[in-house]
Amino acid sequence: MAKKQAPAAEGAAAEGKGKGKLKLIIIIVVALLLVIGASVGATWFLLGKKSAEPEHAAPAAPAAPVHLAAVYQALVPAFVVNYNAEGRQRYMQVTVTLMGRDQGQMDALKAQLPQVRNQLVMLFSGQDFNSLLTPVGKEMLRQQATSKVQELAKKLTGQTAIEQVLFTNLVLQ
């Protein structure tokens, strides 16, 4: 009987040592977390306090440019162009709106609208019907129209004047 109790006593002693090591590991981990937290808090406090001192701060950089509200100019009436595709007569109707950010530039371009309309008619009439059936083809046409109008505006007024050409209606037949 004495032999049976001796191994049990050794197991209890080993189990007590395992619990002691586990407690020690937990205490070390908690202490490490507290030190890291204190370090982060102190850094945040000191950096926040440093930026609040205006007397030692360097001169402020100019603020980022503020985007002005969008200004829209609809080109009325809608563009209707025809072209041959695969031996058939095809038609395209496009309602176009110009988007800019400066009303003065848009007004300067408004005086040149006949030339803008001519440029867009020439662009629209030279398109391939099959490519315009896909969303990618329509987006490419819109980007081409934007670049053509920006080039023309730069040539006529000295400024690009518009940011985008928007299609508010596009019908293919």
Automatic annotation (TrEMBL):
TM stretches of this protein: 24-46, 66-85
Q: How does it sit in the membrane?
A: Single-pass membrane protein
Q: Does the keyword Membrane apply?
A: yes
Query: Which Gene Ontology cellular-component terms appear in the entry?
Result: bacterial-type flagellum basal body; plasma membrane
InterPro entries on file: FliL
Keyword annotations for this protein? Cell inner membrane, Cell membrane, Cell projection, Chemotaxis, Cilium, Flagellar rotation, Flagellum, Membrane, Transmembrane, Transmembrane helix
User: Record's family?
Assistant: Belongs to the FliL family.
What PANTHER family is this protein classified in?
A: FLAGELLAR PROTEIN FLIL (PTHR35091)
Q: Write the protein's name.
A: Flagellar protein FliL
